[in-house]
Write a structure and sequence with these properties.
The complex is a heterodimer of chains A (205) and B (292).
Chain A (H helix, E strand, L loop, with lengths): L1 E4 L4 H5 L6 E10 L2 H12 L8 H11 L3 E3 L4 E5 L2 E6 L9 H11 L3 E4 L5 H10 L2 E4 L5 H5 L2 E8 L9 E15 L6 H17 L4
Parallel strand pairs in A: 1-2, 2-3, 3-6, 6-7
Antiparallel strand pairs in A: 2-9, 4-5, 7-9, 8-9
Helix pairs in contact in A: 2-4, 4-5
Chain B lengths: L6 H14 L3 H13 L5 H19 L9 E8 L6 H16 L26 E6 L5 E8 L1 H4 L3 E4 L11 H15 L7 E7 L3 H10 L12 H14 L15 E8 L8 E7 L4 E8 L2 E4 L1
Parallel strand pairs in B: 1-2, 5-6
Antiparallel strand pairs in B: 1-3, 3-8, 4-7, 5-7, 8-9
Helix pairs in contact in B: 1-4, 2-3, 6-8
The chains are: A alpha/beta (205), B alpha+beta (292).
Chain lengths: 205, 292
């Protein structure tokens, strides 16, 4: 097990290899489909408009050297304070067209999600020194225990799952499945299973 | 059959249990899978985390997975029972279960992108009603997450790319391909529900209904039993493993059923259920409610 404190340095990210089991600690922000759409439309396709300037500064601080978590949590509000009840990862591949742009623009050092990502993100991980951390899909209660505090929430108008939640995590468990050296467990497993599939199809009569 | 006003509370409890408690047969199957993986591998540790999560969710009464999914209700009702008040009660129970954080608000307006905030909306929740000849009322519920729903697939035979003809071998080939295509993305190890024949709609419907079968049951139809066994054994040789980390257990089960088809059409529909196979049955018999 490797303990990684966030924000992380390029050297810390470069030391991570596919297959490493890690515990992440620090302040991270959630962002999934609608959040990526929002970032692309407002901060990447154009200069941030006046109305989104404040949000841009918040994200710049939250994401620099840090990780973005593909997650749409179940949240409870008790005595005016939010608490994460269930908070596993969502499927990352939907952000494949956008993530490399977000990594570059905001100097993101890692993505937490599930299912892995494709060639564009892998290349961005190599070029800008970032890693993909695979959390255990469906292990929502277990992961929520590592979320110690909900610091703030942005874009709540997108709905609870799609909002951007700034959270403090301690010992968040994940496995590195894409590293900053071009390694991808997903590409490996897919290639291996593809070969096996061909072999198995020929045995079905 | 008359349902008293407390029935809504029973439905809320039914939804809570479906969201926080994994069925026994699924837990047993996951436990076996854990023992089969190489100790200390990413696959083994993923399964251990999953089992720990299952236990914590039950004890803490929190959702097993934050994606509490599409709520799909199948209601079998006795003769002369009106379904309109029942639908209203189901909807009210869904709203309450959402307010209590047993469910995540998941209903998004497809045109505006706005989340309704309470899990109700157009065709949401999904409720299928069917009259049956039994005196009791049966409500079955599954929570079907989006990650696994996205990796479902419908094949039309013949499929030249896979060398799948309009025969039993062709059926097996496309199901195996669906397991490959899903990789770990549907939260493996998952369960495949298969609908053979029918039109596109019925075919998918049959595939989803299979998720109510216990993992340890055996198909009474020997042809289907053979399809299920062979595809399961072969899928577990693909090496995709839990979460797609590589490993021995890619699927926990394959369950199939069939319908008559048109001469021109031959659909094989494959639905994927993640390891968090959340399903429960509620029965109302002689005014008493049981949840299984």
């Amino acid at each position: 097990m490797i303990r990684l404190s966030l924000p992380a340095t390029d050297a810390e990210i470069a030391a991570l290899k596919v297959g490493d089991q890690v515990w992440l600690s620090g302040t991270i922000i959630t962002g999934r489909d609608a959040a990526h759409h929002y970032m692309i439309e407002n901060f990447i396709k154009r200069e941030p408009p006046e109305s989104e300037r404040q949000m841009y500064e918040i994200l710049r601080c939250a994401l620099a050297g840090n990780v973005i978590y593909h997650c749409g949590p179940v949240v409870a509000k008790e005595n005016g304070k939010y608490r994460f009840v269930a908070a596993g990862p969502t499927t990352s591949i939907r952000e494949e067209p956008y993530e490399h742009l977000v990594i570059e623009k905001f100097n993101v050092k890692g993505v937490i999600g599930k299912g892995g990502m494709g060639a564009k993100t892998l290349e961005a991980c190599r070029k800008f020194k970032a890693a993909y951390f695979h959390a255990i899909g469906g292990a929502a209660t277990y992961i929520a225990q590592s979320v110690k505090e909900v610091i703030d929430v942005y874009k709540l108008d997108l709905g609870v799952p799609e909002a951007m939640w700034l959270i403090r995590v301690e010992d968040f468990p994940a496995v590195v499945t894409m590293d900053s050296h071009g390694g991808s467990l997903h590409a490996e497993v897919e290639a291996r299973s593809k070969q096996k599939l061909e072999e198995l199809l020929s045995t079905i009569k | 059959m008359h349902l008293n006003d407390n029935f809504k509370d029973d439905l809320v409890e039914f939804i809570r249990r479906t969201s926080v408690e994994l069925p026994d047969d699924v837990i047993i199957s996951l436990t076996r899978a854990t023992q089969a993986e190489q100790p200390a591998s990413a696959a083994a540790s993923a399964l251990q985390t999953i089992l720990q999560n299952v236990q914590m969710s039950k004890l803490g009464t929190t959702p097993i997975c934050q994606d509490t999914g599409t709520l799909i209700f199948y209601v079998d009702y006795p003769a002369a029972m009106s379904t309109i008040p029942l639908r209203k009660m189901i909807e009210a129970a869904v709203v309450e279960a959402t307010a209590k954080s047993f469910l995540r608000p998941n209903a998004v307006d497809s045109l505006t992108g706005k989340n309704s905030g309470n899990n109700t909306g157009r065709e949401f929740p999904v409720v299928h009603f069917e009259e049956w000849q039994e005196p009791q009322l049966r409500v079955r519920l599954m929570l079907k997450g989006g990650g696994c729903e996205n990796v479902g697939a419908q094949y039309s035979l013949p499929n030249t790319k896979l060398g799948a003809d309009r025969d039993i071998a062709g059926i097996k080939k496309v199901i195996l391909d669906a397991a490959f295509q899903a990789q770990g993305k549907g939260c493996a190890p998952g369960i495949l529900g298969v609908g053979i024949g029918g039109d596109r709609e019925t075919s998918y419907m049959i595939s989803k209904k299979q998720f109510f079968r216990r993992l340890d049951d055996r198909n009474a139809n020997p042809v289907l039993a053979e399809i299920e066994d062979e595809v399961l054994a072969k899928a577990n040789q693909l090496g995709i493993g839990p979460m797609g980390f590589g490993g021995k257990t890619t699927l926990l089960g394959v369950k199939a059923d069939w319908a008559h088809r048109l001469p021109a059409s031959f659909f094989v529909s494959v639905s994927y259920m993640c390891w968090a196979d959340r399903r429960r049955t509620l029965i109302v018999r002689d005014g008493k409610v049981e949840i299984h």
